[in-house]
Predict the structure.
Amino acid sequence: MRVRDWTIPLSLLSLVASAALAADDLAEAKRHADAGLSLYKEARYREAISELEQAVSLSIKTKPEAAGVVSYNLGQAHEKLGDIGAAVKAYKEYLRLVPRATDRAAVQTLVGNLEARLTRGVQELAVSSDPSGANVSVDGKLRATTPVTMELPYGEHKLELTAEGHEPATRTVNLTPQAAMKVDVSLAKKAAPAPPPPVVEKPKIWTWVALGGAALATVGAAAAGAQARTKANELKATMHSPPVPDDLYDASVNAQVTSNVLWATAGAAAITGGVLFFVEGKF
């Protein structure tokens, strides 16, 4: 429903009484009523209620129906604040003071719905956030996304708001029959993750051990090979004088075997060193 202008359906301007006191009261009542409507339109509901209550007090004896119109607007202001009990009382006063109201049935339905809310023991809670679209959980259960207005039972409730890229925020509210509540939450952005620490490789001790072993084995293999060739040459030169050739032959073979083994060891150590170079220090 919309608030009603003071002059519709009745105007205090046409209700100037013959008595000067009554006229003054009506003029003052209209001034408060107009101020109350202006404040209502600015969403300054508590201030509007103060002005409208004064308008009702000044006009109810002289012109009850005019006071009834103001009572309706008073009910609207109370409802905006979530004071359901006060809103019901003001609407009922409107129905009592304006018996010929054309919207009687609609207002009676409105009163019935508000009284049902009072019976159920629920109150309105409006939740908004920056940024909007945050998920709202009430007492651990996901309910909606912001902005949202919901009805909750009287008492304490825990709210949690979450949004992607933002830190979660929690609020505790205590709902009462006297007034609705509005909660506006600003969610802080999550801090950028810290860069991972630099990877410090451990010294490649075994890599260098393996490569050193490969180098030593290479040197040994070369030396053994040279010795084998020397013994073989000596063997050729002494073929005519046994049993020396047999000793030279054995020495040559042994040196060649040693050389082959050392070459194989050098190769294996070199391969091992290459593998360790890439993997050592990373685990």
Q: What stands out?
A: The two ends are 73 Å apart (CA to CA). The chain has three domains: 12-120, 123-186, 205-279.
